[in-house]
Write a structure and sequence with these properties.
The protein is mainly alpha-helical and 559 residues long. Helices cover 64% and strands 3% of the residues.
Amino acid sequence: MPYCLVKPLADAFKKALVEGKIDPQKLADMTSKERHAFFEEIVGKDNAGQVNSLFESKLLLKDVERGMINWAKQVTGIKPEVRNDLISRIQKMDERILNPENQKAFMEDLAARRLGIDVTLEEAKQITELSINLAKAKENIANDRLAYGAAKVAMENYLNDLKREANKLSLDSFRASPVGASVQAASEIAGFAKSMKATLDVSALGRQGFKAIFTHPKQWATGAAQTFRDIWITLKNKTSEDVAMDAVKAEIYSRENAVDGTYKRMKLDIGTGEEAYPTSLPEKIPAFGRVFKASEVAYNGFLTRLRADIADRYIQIALDNGVDLKDSFQAEAIGRLVNSLTGRGSLGRLESTGKVINTMFFAPKNVKANFDFLTAHTFEKTSGFARKQAAYNLLKVVGGIAGILAIAKAINKDSVELDPRSSDFGKVRWGNTSFEVSGGMSSLVTFASRLISGSSKSSTTGRITKYKSGFGQTTRFDALISFITNKASPAFSVGVHWAKDQDSNFEKPTIQGELYNAFVPLPITNAIELLKDPDSAPDLIAMMADAFGIATNTYKRKR
């Protein structure tokens, strides 16, 4: 994004140019540190690095005169009629390059500007070395594709580490105030709780990856098989390095569609981490940490690989149908299609508040992905190609779910609820245990059905409740609140329970109970539910289903 000074500082800069205080010839003769200090006097400390890095980057151009003029225009937005004198002074300059002393300081300013953080000289040197390695690997990509991917991952990891350190420094100042400390502590606890609840399984296969079972079974099966290899590599790795995940990203980053920028134009959501694991803090827990890490890698690795594999398939189909993937609109439409298929919906304008939303809700992007999928992207601008593919996918998945429910009903007619107003809709009942066989999409259908019909059906008693206005009556607003709170994150659920003075089991909340609900992994809590109920589904079958993402819920029905 072009950098430009705010108007008061731009005016001060222009005035200095007009008065001759800023002379390009003299600026070029200064050392980088001298220039930085000079700009501080005119545009302030916060802007000096930006202005100086822009100036020095122009010194590297072969056409120095044009570079200097572009620099002045970029910083101030100066108009042609007021820069004649400046141009004449620039045209008198001799061509020069940065000497080694200037280059050191230049690297610091330039790296800080590009990364948005301050870096030391040693860090800037490391970035330069990694950039050189990446460039060399790219030149040799035809002979060693994975070496290029590994070099790109190394660069990405190093920059992410720098940004994390910079964020820590920012957080330190934020924590200095009582309010800041409280907010940060709450955020870290919420992230820790969510990561703990999500671990100890390979649930991405049957939740975020559920739709791909019917739409892209080959890609799903390949990814599922490789997921267990990733788990094994992580468990046997004795270092702190994320070997398995780095290997996944290296392979994807070196694909042709990544190298030529197609993934980027699609805005394919790869390499960013999944929302169910907002923090890796649990991996620091002795003994448990390695198992947690394996679960995290399984989750992130499977979805990253699946996303890229499905994207490759759609890219080929699009090219075969004459779709221009150089067109950003066409590319982004396919990218949204792939992202939603793999549990990664876009929050639109709310993306900027993604961390806050992710703290409050368990999987907001997955909910949005399911909504986009069920509506075939009707409520967003998309291409004809993407819309047609979305419709095909919807038919395949709905047909697949219907087939599963039909088989279950043929075996046991009471095992399937056909009324979409019931929370048992889209599930298969076995005793007191329900199995979610829609990848989590049934809750959206039930919510919509309740709003449209103005009524709901209890999954425990079978009683129909009509929504009515008036004191003590159940309304559509109550249905909305119930839907939202059921999607709450573990930490936010604690607040909901205390506010209602009632937990998810309709009992008075206790500190011990809320800690259990917030931090004990879902596979463990679900297993305990199963073991407590003699009328539940067979324990081993239900626990295996839950581990693979076919969510189970065990409770008594009063019928």
